[in-house]
Design the sequence.
């Protein structure tokens, strides 16, 4: 017994004997206008944070009275929102895109070269890739030649693809890496030669020779991509991204980096629908950490409306007898859905056309009728037949991207005709029916900024202030609804409403400080907004200063 | 052209205009006794290091004359060796073991409790696991009871297993987690109850109830394991570990952590022989980074000698008509070997008994006859029939663990008889035949220290100074041979001799500083040696101070 007592004493007394009656906090943010996005959409002045979570929400006076904080931030009247969630994006894809030079909207070949030089200063890439030039936008409307790139990059391969993907300019180092000479045969395309010399222009098939010479993506490249994407999303106050389709290897890389403290952003990762991925994940309990949530499968029901790949019930209005198509048979879709229904996972299906949507909605409806709280999602929910809205609910959730509406509005009526268009991008109707709507961007298809999402959802205009009065303004969401869609409703759609999506005690201390009050700022100022500071788990991960 | 010139100027001039005639280095280590382990086994005084690699080796005066280093370390006469390589260990397994309390060789239950308390102070584990107690070693030779553990850990489950794995002591929190009450039926074992109360002792089958209540291993747990193992190996100057069998997920985790800068140690990872692993890796180019080398498959031909699982040509000397057994058929082994031979991978096969060894050696020999430089390894090469030594070469490499000899010597002759024993642990003969031998430990089966490996290889005694004159002293290696086996030969066996294994310009700046000269220190002082400091890629990763 003596020994036992000794042991008990030797493990020490861990509680503090400080007589200070205030409670300890790590961070106190005061003098803010905080939209808590709680049930009542109430506002507050101050929050206390401890161990990465919100401890209390109240007035500045109350919280200063009650808490003794290691750090106090005076927000000087700035606005605070819960950390924003992008309910549908391609986070890893965005990161990979950032490893190539963006050459879209260049006004001259000089600008192309200048962007490449700027990129390489940052990246020091061993093989420079670029995409998006279009000589039709230049004063000299001719294919460029490689000479300048040879002078600037004598030893580093450079390969830049035209916007349509059918032509590529390679410098000599890239041609050498690909083993291309003026005598290389060019089947199914062209290797441009002038005066017996390569110009660097390759058209169609021969482009593959250069593409195959690009080094394979290493883990280090993947990590760089993830960190670059993280840097970008934090600038906009995003703290959780739903990645709409990842393979096992990338998911495990993200988990590893997060757990090692090398990646901060929270990811809700949808599993790409491959046999390998499903076999690996579906028999297991979903992978859930504070930073990563793997509990859903991404499925593609159809293609896109712009390219007329979306599956419609009636023919396209601008293409005779063309209906688009489902990407797999209804039987296959149902089989996969049934397999997922038998697992603990959600199914998140890309559905654009009204035909694809009704297949998805009816299948969900029959599988989930007696399956409890499953929250399966219809990603895009883009064109819905009037009679099919009824299937949406808090268990069959619309997940939409408002900037798609303002990007597509220029030609959507061509594809659909005025009657069908009424059920397209119909966010207000979806919300009224489901009682919930999750908002995202689909970046890199659209830009990353959630403020563009907010603007498109509420104002229904694009950044050219078009159209006057907004596109189908009856489908606009209120500012409150849009903010809920980017926070608590997105969290709910992820089964994460108990840990994020609002500023309430016990939830992760993810929040964004804004210079302007998103709920009251004049509409014209919304699109350019960025975060003043972004906090994730109580830690500042971005500061505009 | 003006624009081009502008661009060229704008990318800047990157070379320095410093007139200092000395070359830049990151680190200069002077006044050392450096065993370079180059071809001539030459020594030097100083090394210069830049960008993680050795730049030059020479006298202190020469290198100080020639290099201007950011940091200069005066080794004050200490000894330097190349970073040590363990050619056969279980690095991840060791790390996982470190997540449990080691209760082996405890002298009382009080010591058991004390070790648990000490462990928990460091680890703050949510479910404490321990292994290795044996009440026969205690004064009171009775099964312990849970009361002390209940008092010390009222809320944290504790489950500690007896050394034979057939009994377990659980505290009340662990019993609660397992749902065990005094009325729980105990089929195929026992749930000890005294005076109507659980004592905490479970025997055999009911142990599974507690084991199943232990939380699953998370990525965070895995990372902790890897970092704990790294910390341990760096204390001994080990900079590369060959992990003898890892699954894809752990290999990718290691790669991720290394590339993110969260794990430093270099790993040569043998792929565990499962269908999933082979399907995933074998069709790909081997994964090779500065820190990770995945280019081999681990196969188990037979079991262990101690438990009489090793496959012998003739019956065990201490078990009538018992030969041990191969773990798979010869046909299966050959099929796997042929598949690996058709890939760029090495095959590293565990072979203990002379029968297993001859199957492996003949298969290797026939597959590799015209296959060029493949360096397949025989892991353990433990008992070799006199007529089979001839198969070993620089293409069929013996990879052995000298401490196995001094651990097994107490009963090896019982198993094998005096004649067969002559071909067992016959390291000198293996070296003479192959011209190379790779040395390792097989930790956690043996202790981590490479100095114990060195001692066992050279002195052929265990740490009890037994036996006088050494075990089969004719099989002792010279100190130089043992050091080569732990450095350059191990590197060669990994296809890494161009980047590590000796201190020569261009190789990774991996080295260990020792307080004693391993080549000349009195033999009795060898077993307790540790590193004074360990450097990996020119960065100090361990310091004894």
Sequence:
């Amino acid at each position: 017994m003596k020994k036992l007592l000794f042991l008990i004493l030797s493990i020490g007394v861990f509680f503090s004997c400080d007589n200070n009656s205030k409670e300890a906090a790590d961070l106190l943010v005061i003098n803010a206008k905080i939209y808590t996005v709680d049930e009542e959409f109430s506002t507050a002045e101050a929050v206390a944070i401890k161990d990465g979570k919100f401890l209390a929400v109240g007035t500045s006076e109350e919280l200063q009275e009650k808490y003794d904080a290691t750090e106090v931030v005076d927000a000087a009247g700035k606005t605070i929102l819960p950390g924003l969630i992008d309910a549908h994006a391609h986070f890893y894809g965005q990161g990979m895109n950032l490893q190539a030079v963006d050459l879209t909207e260049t006004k001259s070949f000089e600008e192309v070269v200048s962007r490449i030089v700027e990129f390489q200063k940052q990246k020091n890439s061993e093989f420079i890739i670029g995409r998006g030039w279009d000589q039709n936008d230049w004063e000299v409307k001719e294919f460029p030649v490689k000479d300048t790139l040879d002078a600037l990059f004598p030893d580093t391969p450079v390969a830049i693809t035209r916007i349509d993907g059918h032509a590529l300019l390679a410098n000599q180092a890239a041609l050498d890496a690909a083993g291309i000479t003026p005598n290389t045969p060019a089947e199914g395309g062209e290797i441009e030669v002038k005066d017996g010399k390569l110009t660097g222009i390759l058209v169609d098939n021969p482009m593959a020779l250069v593409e195959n010479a690009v080094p394979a993506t290493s883990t280090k490249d993947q990590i760089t991509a993830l960190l670059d994407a993280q840097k970008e999303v934090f600038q906009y106050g995003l703290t959780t991204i739903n990645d709409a389709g990842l393979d096992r290897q990338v998911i495990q890389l993200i988990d590893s980096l997060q757990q090692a403290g090398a990646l901060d952003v929270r990811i809700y990762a949808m599993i790409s629908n491959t046999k390998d991925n499903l076999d690996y994940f579906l028999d297991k309990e979903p992978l859930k950490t504070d930073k990563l949530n793997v509990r859903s499968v991404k499925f593609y029901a159809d293609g896109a409306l712009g390219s007329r790949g979306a599956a419609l019930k009636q023919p396209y209005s601008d293409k005779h007898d063309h209906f688009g198509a489902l990407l797999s048979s209804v039987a296959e879709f149902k089989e996969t859905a049934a397999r997922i229904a038998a697992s603990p996972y959600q199914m998140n299906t890309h559905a654009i056309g009204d035909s694809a949507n009704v297949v998805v909605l009816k299948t969900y409806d029959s599988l989930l009728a007696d399956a409890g709280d499953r929250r399966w999602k219809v990603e895009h929910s883009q064109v819905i037949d009037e009679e099919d809205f009824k299937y949406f609910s808090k268990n069959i959730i619309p997940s939409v991207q408002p900037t798609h509406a303002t990007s597509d509005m220029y030609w959507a009526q061509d594809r659909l005709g005025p009657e069908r268009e009424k059920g397209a991008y119909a966010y207000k109707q979806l919300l009224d029916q489901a009682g919930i709507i999750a908002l995202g961007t689909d970046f890199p298809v659209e830009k990353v900024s959630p403020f563009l999402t907010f603007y498109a959802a509420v104002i229904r205009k694009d950044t050219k202030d078009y159209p006057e009065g907004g596109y189908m303004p009856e489908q606009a969401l209120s500012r409150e609804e849009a903010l809920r869609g980017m926070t608590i409703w997105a969290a709910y759609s992820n089964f994460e409403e108990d840990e994020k999506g609002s500023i309430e005690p016990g939830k992760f201390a993810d929040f964004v400080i804004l210079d302007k009050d998103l709920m009251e700022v004049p509409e014209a100022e919304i699109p350019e907004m960025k975060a003043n500071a972004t906090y994730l788990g109580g830690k500042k991960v971005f500061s505009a200063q």
About this structure: Residues 100-213 of chain A form a domain with the Diaminopimelate Epimerase; Chain A, domain 1 fold (CATH 3.10.310.70).
